[in-house]
Amino acid sequence: MPQRKPERVIGEILGDPAAQQRSPVNAGYLCPFINSECMKRGHLTEGPYPVCSVWWGQKTPRLVMTCPKRLYQADISQDVIHHCWPGTLPAHPRVAYEVSMEKFGNVDMVIADVDPITGAVLEFVSVELQAVDLTGSVQPAYLGILNSQATVEVAYGVNWANVRKRYMAQLVDKGFYHHQWQTRIVAVMQTLLYEKLREHIQFDELPVGQHTPVDVIFMLYDYVESTQPSEGHTLLFDRVVGTSHSSLMTHTLYQSTPNKDEFA
Predict the structure, then answer these.
(1) Is the pLDDT of residue 220 over 90?
(2) What is the pLDDT of residues 34-82, one digit of tens each?
(3) Helix and strand element counts for the chain (H, E)
(4) What is the per-residue pLDDT across 169-202, written as a single tens digit (0 to 9) for each?
(5) CB atoms inside a 10 Å sphere around CB 192
């Protein structure tokens, strides 16, 4: 197993560059993006496991988000209203978190235009946040940072395939419901994750407008990595990409076929 510097494995802890965050317990495990205790849990430690991102890649490592709550550094609700809202912009927007319903599952956020007098929902858009899974564990690197170790033994990778299979299937289901409801669902993720999904699933990329036939939208953010060790990395809005539920479903189900001779 290779020896690595732990701060070149772990990208961020509680939103800070890994080398700057030596004692999350003294910080009360407070996640700055949700203003409450970190919700992640690990296999080798008790209590919260506040790793927001890791470094991935050999030649030019990039930050890869491992916790969807990290996306809350961005003003997601305002970006959804500005870039993704169908029809007339909401006059009285309200945000609800962790909305669930039987036979539907749950979504991370719903942004609704609510009548201030009757309380009726006039229009709504659902929002799903997604980060990556890892193959292997980076917890030895996390513990190495806490214990000020120079190097640790750790092997890990990014499980792009697991996200592609699990998340995209869920998005197809929920996209169908929103298609039937004549509204939209917004999938919020890091640009790098979207690019990895697109390598395998070639759904139509459609322009997003208030009156375009788009019911699934990918809203993408990416890191602006700090050049100063003491300063945090910033998450900035990149772009939105629209698609239709039918295109997403078709291309998720019928992906490019592997080579038959190689299989044989």
Answers:
(1) yes
(2) 999 998 887 767 788 999 999 998 888 999 999 999 999 999 999 999 9
(3) 6, 16
(4) 899 999 999 999 999 999 999 999 999 999 999 9
(5) 20
The answer to whether the CB of 17 falls within 8 A of the CB of 6 is: no
Q: How many residues does the chain have?
A: 264
CA–CA dist 5, 154 (Å, integer): 10
CA 132 – CA 189 distance, rounded (Å):
9
- Mutual orientation of helices 245-253 and 160-180 as an angle, nearest 10°? 140
The pair of three-digit structure tokens given for residue 25, joined into one six-digit string: 């317990």
SS3 14: coil
Q: Which of 181, 183, 257 is nearest to 213 (CA)?
A: 183
Name the E strands within the chain.
3-4, 10-13, 16-17, 30-31, 36-37, 51-56, 62-65, 93-101, 105-114, 121-129, 134-135, 152-153, 157-158, 184-190, 216-224, 234-243
Residue pair 147/86 in contact (Cβ under 8 Å)? The answer is: no
Angle between helices 191-200 and 160-180 (to 10 degrees): 90
Q: Which of 244, 111, 113 is nearest to 176 (CA)?
A: 244
pLDDT category at 19 given cuts 50, 70, 90 is confident
Q: Any residues with CB less than 8 A from the CB of 11 and at least 6 apart, and which?
A: 17, 18, 51, 52, 53, 54, 55, 63, 64, 233
Which residues have a Cβ under 8 Å from the Cβ of 126 and sit 6 or more positions away? Answer: 99, 107, 109, 110, 174, 178, 183, 184, 185, 186
Residues ≥6 apart with Cβ < 8 Å to 48: 24, 29, 37, 38, 39, 40, 41
